[in-house]
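Help wanted!
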Amino acid sequence: MLTLGIETSCDETSVAIIEGDADSGMTVLSNVISSQVALHAEAGGVVPEIASRAHLTMMEPVLAQALADAGVTGKDIGAVAATSEPGLIGALLVGVSAGKALSVAWNVPYVAVNHMEGHLFATLLENPGLELPVVVLLVSGGHTMLVAMDQLGSYRVVGSTIDDAAGEAFDKVARYLGLGYPGGPVIDRLAKEGDAKAIRFPRALVGNGLDFSFSGMKTAVINYVRKHPEAENADLAASFQEAVVDVLVAKTIEAVKVTGANAACLGGGVAANSRLRERMAQACKAEGIPAFIPGREFCTDNAAMIAAAGAWRLKADGPSGLDSGATPSGGRSTLFA
Amino acid sequence: MELRTATNNPDQTKELAASLSRLVKSGDLVVLTGDMGAGKTCFTQGLAKGLGIEGRVTSPTFTLANTYDGRLVLNHLDVYRLDDPSETLDLDLPEMLETGVTVIEWGEQIDAVLPADRLEIEIRWPENGEDDKRVIKLTAIGETWLQRSGDLARATGEWATKC
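Answered by r_m:
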């Protein structure tokens, strides 16, 4: 069966079509992400960074391209899944409304998906036979958490940030250094030209449980630059990135050991960081832990992972009602035990 | 009305915020301003603890808005990433402002769409000061806050010296 997924919880408008589900194996037929395609001209030029209006403008062309890329039409689709939480209410409603409308038009089930569960399913897209339990490091601009994925639908947060997310620290350090936005890719690139050992920034909470703290690391960079205005941006970027990656890798390995998981997986936008991918693979290999690192397009926000979670949720729980809404807030999630 | 105070470390910033939590009411707006890394989220964590919120309060820079349930509902927003006040339409601010205490980091960036009545809190590094020290300025604006200016001064306690 083909599942069409829709993701509009944050900045990206994305529509994807997958075949199959987590039990039978999945094939991604298309995965269109608004920022990766030349749709801005069709959308009339300037697109606001964050706005439901942007999603509204992008939805039709992104949907059309997802169907075209997959070589299918609406009558081939068996179910529609859309992100219903968490995110911005205005942004979520665009995807939820589009999903419900398509479900009515095509007379197929609609299923509401939690965005975070989508990220957990990203690894399964490429590794359908993955034996649970695994530990997933979910690391993005909005989240940094270690999730024990015990079975499909059963997740525990075994560690999370007590202040800033790692991606946010990347972004803010980049802005502070005047490197531009988005900060993650900029620091990733610049760090390759710098010395990661030039400055020893603190590794917060390492050896002290599975929680993270990145606010102090961000402030440490700011304090350092205030005192050493001559410091090279490339060295600052490399040293800061190394500190963040050290913490993320050490705690992921620790979480796999503590929980007795079979493997370590990555998800979220920061999982696209080249140094994190490299160091995670190395560290897992050294420890004899299998590492599953999804392709970059499945790490950042995308609809293929939403279709994957939706296809499984539909089998497990049945369809969502057309009267079901969107739940905006972080801070009140019920996905994790 | 303006109050100035200073804290020596992040824990003191949280304590100051917790003491202010006793006088906030549902419907209040608190606007936090100040440099990156100054401690706006840290302040909100203290306020949340004072409001009896047990969950972990993390930065809403990317999520834009997080809501927590305590003695009062706390809406914690960060509009740092917004380029234009019109982008707040996605947040449904009027609803939030009615349902709880709303704290907005970098709130000055969307001044045009915020109510006039608010408590403004500015957190800065001291001139040539130590890494952990912060200078904090509290400004009560509008009738609802001016009525509480005495309580505000008392709650600010030993840190506060009236300007």
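OP: Thanks! One thing I noticed: Residues 10-20 of chain B form the longest helix (11 residues).
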